Amino acid sequence: MKKIFIFVVSVCMGLGVLFSENIFPDKVHAEQGDGNFSINVISVGNGESILIQCGGENMLIDAGYSTIEEEKGNGSANALSKYLMENGQLCNDERSRFEEEVKRLAEENPNNTVTNFLENLGIKEIDHMIATHPHYDHIGGFIQVIKRYAGADTKVWWSQPLSDNSYFVAYQSILRDMLFEKGAIDPFYSCNNPQPGDYIMLGKGNDKARVLFLTSSENDGARGTEEINNESLVVRVDYKNTSYLFTGDLQREGQLRLLKNAPNVLSDLQERALNGDNNLKDLLNVTNILDVDVLKLPHHGMLNLGNLGGSSKTSGNIELFNAAHPSISLVSTNGDSGMNNYSLPGIRTRRDLSYSDIYSTATNGNLKVTTDGTSIFVNGSPLEKHYHLEKPQNFSADIVSNGVELKWSPVENAQQYRVYYQESPNDEWHWISNLSPDTTHYTFDDGIKGKKYWFVVRASYYTDGAWYHSDANFSNEITYPAPSKEFSGFHAARVFESPNASKYWSYAPYRDVWMNRMTKYNGKALLLTRQMVKDGNTTYYSAYYNGKWVGYVNSYALKNTVTKDTYQGWGTYEDTFNTPNPAKYWRYDPYKNKWLGTMTQYKNKKLDIKRQLAKPDGSMYYSAYYKGKWIGYVNSWGFQ
């Protein structure tokens, strides 16, 4: 039964790194497992082989290809694997030849990756073997395993053979003969394969794990690859307070069938528990038999889209993942699906399991899971997280005094927001800014008066060396407003002040080049317009000095103290100079630092205002034009 708290420890670069999160109390990925239960996911490329040990007994689920070279049929690899792959279909009159050749090659090639792994562990005998389904990436190594590690009491659970003329029938026959040679009386536990609800107890004495079958397979003649995968034997293993689900190559159709039948299987098991089966008593407290702590991903982490189609935002495993909701996921793969560089596990699969730590043999090699029945430890590093990012909701674009204000609601797991504009609904996106995840608003102040804009925002996150994005949200059509007295475009005036000014460079993001050292601007007041976050954390501001753009400037060297005349804004609007005492107002030339004359002749005249100047005494001046001619900077108090 799944608990309510989780305390995570993962191994990274050989060091134990501790992460804690109050999610599932009493469930622990502990620093080490000192119990008698362990799971080894053997690294066999895009095959699968899993060794489970408990209470002095060993169980092997599948024994797939031994190496990547064997998967590809490389002639220099194991000759038996190569021959098996080259003889996928047989007629009845070829059966005898096939069996003789397989037996000969097994004698000449007694080892593979699985047997070598078992030998290195010092294992003498496998007590139980499960072949989830008859594909060679899952059963291709069983001949050598049985030849070396089966005993007279070894039990084998096998799904039904495909048809009378299938090479799988011949393969099963060879395995059965080998078991008879070992002295087995009934080498296959059931001729009709295990049924849902069948179980065995793995281990001796009181230290046992329950191995429970949740599916069976049907022999309905020759079938395709997907049909065979969908009849994989699915096994749930329980050891004390921990639970594990092994899913073979189950694809979407088989998963949906499992989900449909699981409640009935659980109900039957609970009835048996009430009727006296003490090995099932713990299931009386279970409401979902698929809810486990550890999930072995079906079909090597494939998307298994089935009837969802390629445009689905989730994998075809989503319903099974939601039912299992594992804190740990294991996947046996070499990381490559062989389909247009589609990696395994698939990105949509990883997004569906963003709450789970996924451990892959592709990145860790052999995986080992150990537990004492409460704590769970995996000897590897989980894959980086992928997320289903929702597009930013409640996106609004409103005209304000200094431009267009964009707002949206926070998006869970977003590491950045990206804002763009379009000049028509079908136009390309023009990048505006990248914003930190705690910033959910932006003021666009660089538009052209009367021009129409459409704005775009989307959430992003970074993993596996690349950025991934949510769907975009789009604004309605916005007509850019005329600038107001706030002077659209300028947010602040600050002094660039650093003892190491030569180490700072201004940056041009549109060309992605560094421009000039900031030495000559040291101690100068700069006007800052818009903000950019570069490399995920460093803030830059678009800076102007004396009306000339100098580039984007690192915020670290910008001080708030402004000690000299500072231009605060850009923009154009009309206003009337209508003070009753115009003779007391003088026009000012900041470049020559002199007064030009009184404003008497401009009383009640409409002036064109271009930009704004702040003086250290707190007074504000506007750069003013009359009938197209510049007349100087005019004190703002004269505008009523």
UniProtKB/TrEMBL annotation:
<dbReference type="InterPro" id="IPR038200">
    <property type="entry name" value="GW_dom_sf"/>
</dbReference>
<keyword id="KW-0732">Signal</keyword>
<dbReference type="InterPro" id="IPR036866">
    <property type="entry name" value="RibonucZ/Hydroxyglut_hydro"/>
</dbReference>
<dbReference type="InterPro" id="IPR052159">
    <property type="entry name" value="Competence_DNA_uptake"/>
</dbReference>
<dbReference type="InterPro" id="IPR025987">
    <property type="entry name" value="GW_dom"/>
</dbReference>
<dbReference type="Pfam" id="PF00753">
    <property type="entry name" value="Lactamase_B"/>
</dbReference>
<dbReference type="InterPro" id="IPR001279">
    <property type="entry name" value="Metallo-B-lactamas"/>
</dbReference>
<feature type="domain" description="Fibronectin type-III">
    <location>
        <begin position="391"/>
        <end position="482"/>
    </location>
</feature>
<dbReference type="InterPro" id="IPR035681">
    <property type="entry name" value="ComA-like_MBL"/>
</dbReference>
<dbReference type="Pfam" id="PF13457">
    <property type="entry name" value="GW"/>
</dbReference>
<protein>
    <recommendedName>
        <fullName>Fibronectin type-III domain-containing protein</fullName>
    </recommendedName>
</protein>
<dbReference type="InterPro" id="IPR036116">
    <property type="entry name" value="FN3_sf"/>
</dbReference>
<dbReference type="InterPro" id="IPR003961">
    <property type="entry name" value="FN3_dom"/>
</dbReference>
<dbReference type="InterPro" id="IPR013783">
    <property type="entry name" value="Ig-like_fold"/>
</dbReference>
